[in-house]
């Protein structure tokens, strides 16, 4: 009898009662209880920029009983898994890629018979994690083999392959082996590692000649040690391979077995002048390190602006401010003035994103219409925001429609999302609809370098309006062949297939607009020329150009699908799914099912592909007090029948719990003695008179938010909002539409929906009004609270919600069926404690106050016992203030 285990972008499954377990990964390894990992190897073959990587790890159980081993791999986010297998005592169990829903049904069927599951998670800026487990018998051996493919991108004049190295132990046979074949010839090849010492530098063996390159890294056990007699490993960090190819012509065309790939990267072109508008979010949430790093990055960017460029700055908080009324030339005098302006940028108000971006577009349109900027110049808008629109037009679909209509595709829009509080999906869709892209800027000490690094990618436009034309009657399945800009150091890649698979010649017309004149030429290639270049067959893996075409097609279709709706989205989904299944790629629409025999504990697992545009701000609603959720920028919330949701960003996952107390009790949610901010919430019950508090639903009916340093108090109920500033009181109802700014306070009421509150430039709060039918037999109107920019609060912040504004981590083990077949139980290791938790769902009502959005989380029972500090009754206080 056979069982499956699911891999959700990765896999982690264990059945019923847990055996002793051991964790290891190809680059993330812990070994305990007699499990010996004796071999780790990554074998990479790169042919014409397309890389196939095979990761192999081998382990043996030296103990005298069954043990569970976990295999962890961190993969580039741009890669697609194509194969996975486990070999146990000489028998191989392969993975099969299926449509996600079909895989899910198989998984649920397996779970009902005693299996468990785990998820793939984003584990870093460049990587996502794949995990799988297996229970192996005493003296048994297991081999894990994972294959993934990716097209290496060219940036700053080099192709880069990134490998995460983190074995966390000494490994007898550890090796990285990279073979590169480029028919154009290789001009440079380098390998470096963040963990490489002077001694380890000599272990990296690098050779290249003409078309071939090779890198080997195979340290001995002694070379891996941190010191002569240490058992700790030096191997902990990033291993990067970079190279470039010879370019005797502007492009290179290759034809193999009815498919072609066309690489276009001209050199020695004069740079186009650029017209660049920086649209910068200066809302209160950007205060502190964010605005400091933004100023730092902009000052460095100004040092790189050329004197034939034009520029301007637009700042948006509650209002929109401009440096100049129109684009101006970057003369030395103007750049000095720009530096003074940038040094003076400070934060204020809320987030009028619509006003800021539309002002930038209008300014660029006017500059072209009035001939302020050169005709042969590249126009770019770069927008940086760390929040979500809440002033002016705040509906993201409306903003996207206005922006698309205003730009008319004339110039690209690049959206930079600072931190995790942004609606990244919105930024990505708007950028893609306007020939740009979105990028997340991670909140860290190097955020300024991230900002400057992105600017460097787009700071040197060499061509605009690049078109690569192929004979329509000869080619089908053509990938994107029209590009607004070509940037120095990058590369344009186009692929397609021939209508006649036997056709062996192709003619391409290339056109583009340069700084001085138009670029236009015709290139030809035939299959025999390509075959001659590929005589070294040992470097070729299968039909690599066909797979490169499939990879690039799927990648671009997924990009189009991001912003599509309705029938168009359905058609794109069907096309991506068909290609993913045909070429066996784990994409966001497919999952990998791995099967193991009953002898190996009946485990089931699914692997899925992660996507970047996850809305990482969630929150819960259920049968008792509802409170917070916390995300990378340390955002948190509560909503509905009091539930708390805590986001753990490095795991792309969340923990939730309930607080069950009686109506009238006041709970301490946030208490920061440094900033003086406190948030308390009073519970209300449903309409059942004298009902048992154990069965009665409770909600937050009143919130008190105060800043004792400013002598400010704000009381919010489902009927009114009262502000007390010293002895002065001001009151509003939810029927009002208000924007109020006074010293230390910004308040915006969106009629009968929500209010946004900021005190003293610190954390901001969004309070959602939940209105129910007045004649409802049980429910009453209630409030939900979302905390934005909680990192603005001090490290001394506490409370039911505030204690989770500090970093927290957890591990999930022993997933197994629970009392509800759709909600498996598991063991959570957190704060050095083992807790029994249940997989469930809570609601985020920010965007849809009526229905909410389901957010998955691990539910901690018994009022958060073991998770929260102390016991839940410690958080009951006497009054709102």
From TrEMBL:
Residues 21-150 form the VIT domain. GO terms for cellular component: extracellular region. The keyword Secreted applies. The keyword Signal applies. InterPro entries: ITI_HC_C (IPR010600), ITIH (IPR050934), VIT (IPR013694), VWF_A (IPR002035), vWFA_dom_sf (IPR036465). GO terms for molecular function: serine-type endopeptidase inhibitor activity. Coiled coil: none annotated. Residues 275-458 form the VWFA domain. One of its GO terms (biological process) is hyaluronan metabolic process. Keywords: Glycoprotein, Protease inhibitor, Proteoglycan, Secreted, Serine protease inhibitor, Signal. It is found in: Secreted. Belongs to the ITIH family. May act as a carrier of hyaluronan in serum or as a binding protein between hyaluronan and other matrix protein, including those on cell surfaces in tissues to regulate the localization, synthesis and degradation of hyaluronan which are essential to cells undergoing biological processes. PANTHER family: INTER-ALPHA-TRYPSIN INHIBITOR HEAVY CHAIN FAMILY MEMBER (PTHR10338), INTER-ALPHA-TRYPSIN INHIBITOR HEAVY CHAIN H3 (PTHR10338:SF115). This is Inter-alpha-trypsin inhibitor heavy chain H3. It comes from Anser cygnoides (Swan goose).
